[in-house]
């Protein structure tokens, strides 16, 4: 965690505890899994569980909103399992409005949140990946989304990606333009992007999976040649690979648990694996 802390000023008061891919649907771990607070804000970058497990999912979020000032939730693909995309969004919006959450849960579905008393803006969406035509068949066979999400198809997947990336780029442009036009009155904002799918194929997954023909279902190369100049940090999930690196000026982080059976513990094979191990207390300081 010290390496994560060093990315930002330790004197700053804005810190975010971040994790993803808890997969609490495995063995129905919604009531058993605990997140000890290490920061005022909690980022859940998708695949926390399934929205079809509504009551259990809600109870899990309710516990988190008791321990954190804000809980930011990005929807992963598994959130939609057992539902259609539309029905899943309806359930997610219903969650956000539940009185028990005390308005402390923020659903980051194409949503911007400006952190109070700071110049930090959070942009969040699922960012479904872009699947090329030559990978379509293998993705349909190897990726369970098209079986588990009702009426989901590669066309739907790509359309959702196009909607997410258009929204994201539009928000980035708005933030850039807001201070370029009036720099003396409008301070430059620091932008944090939170998505479920990864913004780069390289370095965001285990090396043995990078060249898989179906890797386009997990990531899209967005950091090469795009203008992310005011983006300080990008948090992602989906690949079950905990990592940290910097690319084209953007710090890219993930803290992913993956499929873990109740009672089991993730172990390091050696010291080099330390930064690859999920840490429920991991924090990034802004």
UniProtKB/TrEMBL annotation:
SUPFAM superfamilies: Metallo-dependent phosphatases
InterPro entries, sorted: Calcineurin-like_PHP (IPR004843), Metallo-depent_PP-like (IPR029052)
Chain segments annotated as transmembrane: none
GO molecular function annotations of the record: hydrolase activity
Domain Calcineurin-like phosphoesterase: 18-240
Protein origin, superkingdom: Eukaryota
PANTHER family cross-referenced by the UniProt entry: SER/THR PROTEIN PHOSPHATASE SUPERFAMILY (AFU_ORTHOLOGUE AFUA_1G14840) (PTHR37844), SER_THR PROTEIN PHOSPHATASE SUPERFAMILY (AFU_ORTHOLOGUE AFUA_1G14840) (PTHR37844:SF2)
Official protein name in the record: Calcineurin-like phosphoesterase domain-containing protein
Species classification: Eukaryota, Fungi, Dikarya, Ascomycota, Pezizomycotina
């Amino acid at each position: 965690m010290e390496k994560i802390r060093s990315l930002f000023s330790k004197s700053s008061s804005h810190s975010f505890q971040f994790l993803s891919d808890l997969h609490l649907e495995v063995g129905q771990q919604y009531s058993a899994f605990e997140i000890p607070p290490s920061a005022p804000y909690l980022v859940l970058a998708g695949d926390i569980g399934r929205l079809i497990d509504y009551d259990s999912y809600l109870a899990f979020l309710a516990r988190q909103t008791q321990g954190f000032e804000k809980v930011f939730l990005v929807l992963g693909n598994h959130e939609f399992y057992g539902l259609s995309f539309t029905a899943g969004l309806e359930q997610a919006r219903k969650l956000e409005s539940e009185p028990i959450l005390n308005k402390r849960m923020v659903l980051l579905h194409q949503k911007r949140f400006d952190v109070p008393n700071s110049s930090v803006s959070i942009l969040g969406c699922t960012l479904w990946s872009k699947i090329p035509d030559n990978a379509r068949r293998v993705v349909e066979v190897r990726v369970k989304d098209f079986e588990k999400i009702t009426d989901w198809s590669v066309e739907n997947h790509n359309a959702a990606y196009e909607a997410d990336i258009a929204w994201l780029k539009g928000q980035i442009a708005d933030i850039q333009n807001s201070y370029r036009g009036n720099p003396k009155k409008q301070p430059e904002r620091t932008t944090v992007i939170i998505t479920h799918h990864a913004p780069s194929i390289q370095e965001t997954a285990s090396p043995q999976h990078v060249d898989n023909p179906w890797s386009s279902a997990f990531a899209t190369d967005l950091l090469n040649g795009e203008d992310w100049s005011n983006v300080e940090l990008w948090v992602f999930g989906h690949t079950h690979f905990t990592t940290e690196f910097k690319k084209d000026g953007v710090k890219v982080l993930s803290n992913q648990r993956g499929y873990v059976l109740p009672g089991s513990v993730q172990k390091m094979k050696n010291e080099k694996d330390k930064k690859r191990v999920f840490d429920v207390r991991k924090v990034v300081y802004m």
